[in-house]
Amino acid sequence: MASGGEETTTKSRILVVGGTGYIGKHVVAASARLGHATTALVRDLAPSDPAKAQLLQSFRDAGVTLLQGDLYDHAGLVEAVRAADVVISTVGALQIADQTKLIAAIKEAGGNARRFLPSEFGLDVDRTNAVEPAKSLFAVKAGIRRAVEAEGIPYTYVVPNYFAGYSLPTIGQFLPLAPPVESVVILGDGRTKVVFTEEGDIGTYTVRAAVDPRAENKTLYIRPATNELSHEELVALWEKKTGKTFKRVHVADEDVVKQIQEAAIPTNIILAIAHAAFVRGDVHPLEPASAVEASELFPDVQYTTVDDYLQRLL
């Protein structure tokens, strides 16, 4: 590992748990592309789902080692962790709480893993104003942070704010979750800043930070200045690109909350997270003692801008 404030160029053994998921596949791909000895822990090495089978084959083609296992096989988990320098969890919402099993395995493995990145990849769960049901989900993630810290495991928390793939194809519209046609529904006043990060970039920044001593025991915010826009600015940019003008339909804070309360799963969760980002505002000033910003830490990474992403949609 590098010392002081320098980035390391040493290649690491990286274990990704949850590597076939929405963000996990990007983390696995980035790890392999960056030359690390990458292992993906997967439940089924020969899935019947053609898309999943194709994904696993793409991992093999990239030189990734596929290891059968899951969070609930303690002995196997310890063995997998013992062979890794870095453990990255990208498990989905239903398994967030069960990451305590991964923490226990890391401790039992005896310090082989020099860094753990729990499954985060959203808003900053320690600094959120979310309402239910997102509030409870974020509380579970925060609880995992506290468990990691209590065990003294070196960590990095990755906070990209909003997935570009979730929000930009609809130009930030959530009611309905579809691109605007003649009018666009804006939650709140439309002036709250939101950060949009392309999923492949999340994978790249995550892996770069995972092996960088400057990100140890820090929160990595992925917040390039060009990707921090309000919903109003996003709509205006889309209007400029398409030559269209959209009527703005604003939904007040209390009305959004009412719709969240009345919606079924998973719509209520999607809306609650959107409400936290687009209405309450979850872009906070960085605290240098505990945070680093990805595009500043790794200025050589050519990330996808919001403008670039919208250009693809034309």
UniProtKB/TrEMBL annotation:
Domain of life of the source: Eukaryota
Keywords: NADP, Oxidoreductase
InterPro entries: NmrA-like, NmrA-type/Isoflavone_red_sf, PCBER-like
GO terms assigned for molecular function: oxidoreductase activity
Keyword Lyase assigned: no
Annotated NmrA-like domain residues: 10-310
One Pfam family in the UniProt entry: NmrA
Protein name from the UniProt record: NmrA-like domain-containing protein
Organism field: Zizania palustris (Northern wild rice)
Taxonomy of the source species: Eukaryota, Viridiplantae, Streptophyta, Embryophyta, Tracheophyta
